[in-house]
Amino acid sequence: MTFDRHLAEIAREYPQWTIWRSDAGRWWATRHHPISAEQRDAGCAMTIDADDPEDLREQLRDQERRAGEPERRAGPAPP
């Protein structure tokens, strides 16, 4: 699968984040909205990075759990 397709799938799965891949090949996600002090204390971050798309998905799931958001199922979002 191409990295463009991975980007599109992750962006559909996590619409509250901006997803991109750097020129160095790192995968990144930044939240669209600020986090609260409570979320920050729970380990939430505004921006995360990963080596590959699956690691980024894992980190995004962890961020949602820490933020108290409902967990998503693994894999692409339904059409």
TrEMBL record:
Residues 56-79 have a biased composition (Basic and acidic residues). It comes from the Bacteria. Residues 50-79 are annotated as: Disordered. This is DUF2188 domain-containing protein. The lineage of its organism: Bacteria, Bacillati, Actinomycetota, Actinomycetes, Streptosporangiales.
